[in-house]
Amino acid sequence: MDVRALVFDVFGTVVDWRGGVAREAARLLGPDVDAAAFADAWRARYVPSMQRVRSGERPWVVLDALHRESLPAALAEVGVAGVPDDVADELVLAWHRLDPWPDVVPGLTRLRRSHLLAPLSNGGVRLSVDLARRGGLPWDAVLGAEVAGHYKPDPEVYDSAPRLLDLPPPAVCMVAAHDDDLAAARARGLRTAYVHRPGEFGGRVVPPATDPGADLSVGSLEELATALGC
C-alpha cells in the first residue's frame, strides 16, 4: 500500500479497554464486585449511547459525558445501587487510564519513521492525550469524533482525516480491530488494515482472524510495520 498516514481506532485496537476498566473498577468498587462483568456491562452501553447523538435524539457531547450517563445502569447490572459522585468521576476517568497492547508502542515507533500517525477515535481529545501520555503513544496529531463533531461510523469522522492531514483519501489508511469501522472507512475512500485482537473481549467474543475486505490483515502493529516496509 502506498499510504502516507495511518489513523487508528483506539479502544480495543490500540489499548486494552476491558482490562483497564476492570482494573480501575476493582480498585474503586472493591473485591465484592465482578470487575470484568462491570467492564462488559459498561461497554455494552457504548454504541447505544453514541447512537442517540448520531440520530439527533440528543445534542453532541463528548464520550466522557456519555460514559457518565450510562454508568448507573452498568453498576446496577452488577448489583451496585450507586456510588458517590467522586467515585463516579474516577470511574469515568478509567477510560483515560487504559494501557496499550504490548505490540503497540514498538509498532507505532516503526510506523512513524515513514508515516503520519493519529488516533481516529470516538474518545475525546483530552482522553486521547491522556492515553498517549500514559502509554507513550507517538501520535503526530489527535483526530476523531470530538474534532469532527460526529461519532463513528458517521462519514464526517472518516472524511476529517484526509482533510486535516491535507492528503487524498487513498493516501490515508484506517487501522482497526473492528470490520464495521473499516467498512465505513472504505466507503469514504480510505485504505484499511485489520488488526486481529483476540483478547479484546476477554475471550467472550472471538473476532475473525482476518477481514477479507481490508487491504491488509495483521496480528499486531509490528506485523503491520513489516508489511508496510517500516
From TrEMBL:
Keyword match Hydrolase: yes
SUPFAM superfamilies for the chain: HAD-like (SSF56784)
Keyword 4Fe-4S recorded: no
UniProt-listed InterPro entries: 2-HAD, HAD-like_sf, HAD-SF_hydro_IA, HAD_sf, PGP-like_dom2, S-2-haloacid_dehalogenase
Gene3D superfamilies: HAD superfamily/HAD-like, Putative phosphatase, domain 2
Keywords, comma-separated and alphabetical: Hydrolase
Annotated GO MF terms: hydrolase activity, acting on acid halide bonds, in C-halide compounds
Coiled coil ranges: none
Family label: Belongs to the HAD-like hydrolase superfamily. S-2-haloalkanoic acid dehalogenase family.
NCBIfam families: HAD-SF-IA-v2, HAD_type_II
Protein name (database record): 2-haloacid dehalogenase
Source organism of this protein record: Geodermatophilus telluris
